[in-house]
Amino acid sequence: MYDFDEEIDRYNTHSQKWDGMEDAYGVSPEDGLAMWVAEMDFRPPKEVNDVVMEAARHGIHGYFAKPEEYLASITGWMERRHGWTVQPREIASVHGIVAGVGKALRAYSERGDGIILFTPVYHAFARVIKANKREVVESPLELRDGRFEMNLERLEANLTGREKMVIFCSPHNPGGRVWSRDELRAVAAFCEKHDLVLVSDEIHHDLVFPGEKHIPMVLAAPEQIDRTVMMSATTKAFNIAGALTGNVIIQDDSLRRKFDTDHSATGKSMNRIGALMATAAYQHGDEWLDALCPYLARNAEVFREGVEAIPGAKVHPMQGTYLAWADFSGTGMENAEIVRRFQEDAKIAASHGPDFGTGGAQCMRVNIGTTRERVEEAVSRLQRAFGDLQ
Ligand SMILES: Cc1ncc(COP(=O)(O)O)c(C=O)c1O
After folding, report:
1. Does the chain have fewer CB atoms within 10 Å around its N or its C terminus?
2. Which of 273, 361, 240 is nearest to 52 (CA)?
3. In a domain, 10, yes or no
4. What is the Å distance from ligand 1's center to 347 Cα?
5. Mean pLDDT score of the chain, rounded to an integer?
């Protein structure tokens, strides 16, 4: 019913992922594979493109009003897909989740405050923290049974008292860990104990593989509702990242008022096309998403099996997302050599591990949100590029 195998040519479409890869990595789109920026190579559900075409047919693209249907699509989705009851007034629309994180930093912290990240983690967090003149406090994830786990005891021992906020990534990018209820509760309890605001970035929450379950932070730890700021969007799951429209859901009135002050100060009118696309995705996207997740899960298996055939290479077992974390530390190679083999030998543009913070030194983040054929091609290129290790 949905053809995720269709190869769609994205060159010369102002695609950062394809048209920007040569500048970013020196890999030509002519014969390279773009496996970096977090977006997929699939068209979204048809209804999403239909609203864009309808808007184009009308032809006037002014400011957006009457968000009731948009808000209802979100509350309906959260109830239906996540068992979470959200009120329309609890939702703020932002121009992307990175923008939302910036606003939250301004709302709940001051210059010089410490902001905790569980690294390796999505690189824009550290960038936005630094750009807002706050300090990144890294809490490195640890490998237990081959998967990431938090070490809150060690984090606690290293606190200075200047920390104001945790930015938590759930599911986790990179690597696709879906955190358990106990893990979520532990982070929330930690935030309570140390009086930290808990920003829970759940942008990947709909990209969860069969058999896995994402639990919204607020449902896992309702006691901490007065310090929890949840962020989500349609953009990752439905592959409409360029629509730059996300939602910040804050259920506590006083916490939400604080966010709203900075939201108003930095621009809060809605993205018209983004809102239309997001509404259509949440209204009509269930079946498409239910078909997509198993496809991604199979891509993850193909990638993991193929890369782990390289002696010393390990891929974290994914529970969700399409952002695989490949760890080459067992090869004994330095990052520069791993990168060289990816870019020059395999002609694959993938994200460099060190950009994600401590823990990423000999790793690469590889985006498998593409056709199976491309994933298979990437695997065989990597096997050749590291062929001398066989
Ligand atoms: C965890 C996480 N948050 C936020 C974003 C970006 O969100 P936006 O494009 O809405 O700013 C990404 C994109 O990769 C992400 O992985």
Report:
1. N
2. 273
3. no
4. 25
5. 97
With contact defined as beta carbons under 8 Å apart, do 103 and 129 qualify?
no
22 and 147 in one domain?
A: no
Same-domain pairing of 182 and 247? yes
121, 173, 351: which to mutate for ligand 1, most atoms within 8 A of CB?
173
Average of pLDDT values for 101-130?
A: 98
384 CA distance to ligand 1 centroid (A)? 32
CA-323 nearest atom, ligand 1? 16
Distances (CA, A) of 270 to 62, 99, 136, 193, 357: 11, 13, 30, 36, 32
The verdict on 291 and 279 lying in the same domain is: no
User: 387 CA to middle of ligand 1, Å?
Assistant: 34
Number of domains in the chain: 2
Compute the distance from residue 98 Cα to the ligand 1 centre, in Å.
6
Q: What is the pLDDT of residue 139?
A: 98
Q: Quick check: helix, strand or coil at residue 156?
A: helix
Residue 371's domain is classified under what CATH number? Answer: 3.90.1150.10
* pTM score above 0.85: yes
Residues 6+ away with beta carbon under 8 Å from 254: 226
As for ligand 1, residues whose beta carbon falls within 6 Å of it are 38, 96-98, 122, 169, 173, 201, 203, 233, 235, 241, 244, 246
CA distance 64 to 368: 35
Q: Does 55 reside within a domain?
A: no
Last residue of a domain, one of 284, 316, 348: 284
CA 102 – ligand 1 centroid, Å: 12
**Per DSSP, what are the bridge partners of residue 298?**
none
Q: Name the residue range of residue 219's domain.
A: 61-284
- Domain membership of residue 4 (yes or no) is no
pLDDT, tens digit, for every residue of 10-43? 999 999 999 999 999 999 999 999 999 999 999 9
